[in-house]
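#structure-requests
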Amino acid sequence: MIRNRESLATTDAEELALECVEAGIDAATPRRVVDAAVESSGEWLRIADDEYDLSRYERVLVVGGGNAAGHAAAAIEDVLGDRIDDGLVVTDNPVDTDVVRTAPGGHPVPTAEGVESTRRLLELAAEAGAEDLVLAPITGGGSALLAVPADPVGLEDLQQLTESLLDAGATIHEINAVRKHLSAIKGGRLAERFGDATVAGLLFSDVAGDDRSVIASGPLVADGTTYADAVAVLEEYGIDAPDRVERRLRGGVDGDYPETPGPSDPAFETVRTSVIASNDTALSAAAETAQYRGFEPLRLGSRIRGEAREAAKALVGIAESAAATGTPIEPPAVLLSGGETTVTIRGDGTGGPNQEFALSAALELARSGEVRSGDEGGETAQDDERARVTVVSMDTDGIDGNASAAGALVSSRTVADERRARAALADNDATAYLDARDALVETGATTTNVNDLRVIVVEAP
């Protein structure tokens, strides 16, 4: 999975860190997840805790979107075979399928190709009737990939606004509150298109807390946000929105456009959704790997958020405390965390949240030096008395921010020139520095997207 693993793993700790992230990503791949969550026996279909009598339906359709939607569709075909009659998923990571068509889209910024693909998807959705069962794989990346602007908004407006919100460091909840009110598919509007059809949503969560209304901007889920909430987000971050976006949002506040469907809307009466994969899926597998290798795992949670460089300082501090005092866990140990940190763009470099996390962590480790057990300072410790800390942070979809790398692997040895490293971080140019230090983790696009995964290995002195 990690293309440059051989050159990255120069120590046992680095080998373990990479093994943990690979195990986490593998556990969240659609084939493994669908095999565990979807089962067909005779005329019965089980999806998580829900069961469906296939004899009641004339057609079975597969309709969805996201980074992993193509692979999820292929896995669903493996389970149901020729019982599937038709389908279409929008994705940027296509795979060979027998019945379900894959259509292209753009991520993290929507594209004209994606808009055309999503229009085709909405046409298929509108054809579904009361005698149809729709299986809808919705995965991370769906917010950008499933894109049809609502009148009078144009594609270029969505592109400009998405980039502005990402650059401003807005959270995914805030970004999606805006996108839902500029879309013909998000915020429960896809559920409206399905009409009376029975819909089973298979969700792969890439948001902290697995809020179903936020995953891919909740195309199948009731929306709890309003036009007023969307306007408030733009005002909070000082976003200079395109005129047509302003007209749509202000018009919505004034009642000129209908609100997204809420919890009492009849569109959701025949819709059920199940989160079948999440960041916790990856964390559990990583923890099992660490334990198998003789390291005690400590899960710090799947909801780590905030500015990436600041989150790194906090988590490295916990690791250093474990190394020096055995609190909150005695080495050898592996600290695991997930979630989605953000980056406020101030420079013009290349990178992403995971690379900024890694570079900030490397600076902290270099500044504090290796930590001696029982001594917070550790300046005089000999090599065999030091508890060493190794950090890997990566996006489970294999692409971090505007860089092609998935993330980076660092230690106290990574930063050779603190001044240059800090300058790179200030310019949001973590990629260049980490690449020069042979620290980037290269995977290419994976077949899943369940948010960020961070592994911190604390060796025993």
